Amino acid sequence: MECPIARSLEEVGEWWSILILRDAFHGLTRFDEFQKSLGVAPNMLARRLVALVDSGLLVRRRYSARPPRDDYRLTAKGKDFLPVMLSLLAWGNRHLSGPTGAAVLVKDRETGAVVDPLVVDAKTMKPLSARAVRLAAGPGAGPEIRHRVAQIDRAARKPRPAADSRP
Amino acid sequence: MECPIARSLEEVGEWWSILILRDAFHGLTRFDEFQKSLGVAPNMLARRLVALVDSGLLVRRRYSARPPRDDYRLTAKGKDFLPVMLSLLAWGNRHLSGPTGAAVLVKDRETGAVVDPLVVDAKTMKPLSARAVRLAAGPGAGPEIRHRVAQIDRAARKPRPAADSRP
User: Fold this and answer.
1) What is the DSSP letter of B3?
2) pTM as predicted
3) Which ipTM value was assigned to this complex?
């Protein structure tokens, strides 16, 4: 698959892997910590950790020679996945919170202030909404993406009823 | 599951659903358009569309009475998922592009300028990195989250080798 969104999902592997990355951002590093946090079968966790190491999101390191013990830490590529997590967290807080409010908050490490994640353009700092942006084929686009972009362009020319109506 | 990241993943359903949302952002609305784009079995696509409607991310609308035909459009909750997609896209472009560069670009609809998605704090506009933020229990946190936060606090007090080493 050529699409960078599809590739990202492919690279991360599955839902469980995102929860492992979440815990790694939380500071967990050891097999038993992940297992306690996730409540997942050890063989499944071991498989997902191997996959995340193979994808270069985590690195496995020996932290004790006797007994031999390894832990798992985020690589630069893994740390760079944080914006995806923060966007998922913000969406969940906004749309899936119970009556008592957000279960998890993001806070500034220095000031302790609650942080409200927002996706903007790095150059103009303008917030990116569906109305403000469109997707286009890039220099690395092959036939699959070019075909999809052409399909989108055709779809965009369809007559459309008024937007935003809800059930 | 209490965690808003886990809940978000649960709500969206599975990998395939994110690709359907991607195509909906692209402007696709009709069953056959999604099918052509995704190359997925019709019964699987139908199931995922029903799930996305049930979760309130898409709304199903009759656009033709004779023959009866429905299409699928993003709700406000669905449109609000865009930052997750843009973060996945930016990560994929950065870490998974081939030698010819990004396959898909995000462009400003008005100016056509290429946009570089960045997650910042909505108040201070400061970029949010793993070094800059931490997660904390919110007002809606129950025992599961409070337990995890306590576990994180314990983990944070562990002695740590130097960070950022890569394999």
Assistant:
1) -
2) 0.87
3) 0.88
